[in-house]
Each structure stands twice: as structure tokens, then as C-alpha cells.
Amino acid sequence: xxxxxxxxxxxxxxxxxxxxxxxxxxxxxxxxxxxxxxxxxxxxxxxxxxxxxxxxxxxxxxxxxxxxxxxxxxxxxxxxxxxxxxxxxxxxxxxxxxxxxxxxxxxxxxxxxxxxxxxxxxxxxxxxxxxxxxxxxxx
Length: 139
Prior knowledge:
Blueprint: E1 12-18, E2 21-29, E3 37-39, E4 42-43, H1 44-47, H2 51-63, E5 70-77, H3 81-99, H4 104-110
Parallel strand pairs: 3-5
Antiparallel strand pairs: 1-2, 2-5, 3-4
Helix pairs in contact: 2-3
């Protein structure tokens, strides 16, 4: 693992994962008045229309009181919208941890540094799904 980078003038890169989604997160010091969040070259609000997904993503910034201090650029692939939002949250939390190690206790207590390892269980042969069986007919 890389040494902690306390120099906040550089761009920080971290990867976040959730289900089958992978998010590459780039965090830089803000260029304008307010920090910008862009996901796959689109605005944050445009890419995640659900308010719950947007709230999930900004949680690490709120816990560390760094809302608006950084420009965040994200490339996310795979999975669905919920998994992608979780991957972005994980990546942002890992990047903030690298920027300032003092954020670690708050991020760790909130559970943002732990990768949610739950995956979809595979479908088994002879069954309708992973565990669901076909309907039983007596006659």
C-alpha cells in the first residue's frame, strides 16, 4: 500500500468496489468556488437521479466535513446504479483516508472503509434461480 500523501496539491487516485461495480475515483483540490463531482463525464446529479444514491455518495464528505473542498472525478463501470453508488462512496472514502490520515477514525467508525463483499449468489442447475425451485405439481 502507498504511503500516506499529506500533500493536498496533487491528485489522489483510489479504487472503490461494490457488488460487480468498480469506481476509479480521482480527488483534486477544488479549482473553483465549490467542489465539483463528475461521474463518467456527466454531472453528479445527472448520472445519479435518485436522491438516495446522491446522499450515499456524499456521506464520506459529510463525515469528514470536507463538502465542497475537493473536485472529484469518477469513472465507474459494471453493476447497477445502487452498486455503482456504493463503489463511488467506497472510493471517495479511501481517497479521503489517503489525503489525511486523521480522517481514518471517523471513516472507519462509519464503516466507509470496509468493502461490502456481498455478491449475487450464482444460479444452480435444476433450479429456477440460486435457491428457488420450480413449482411442484402433485398431479
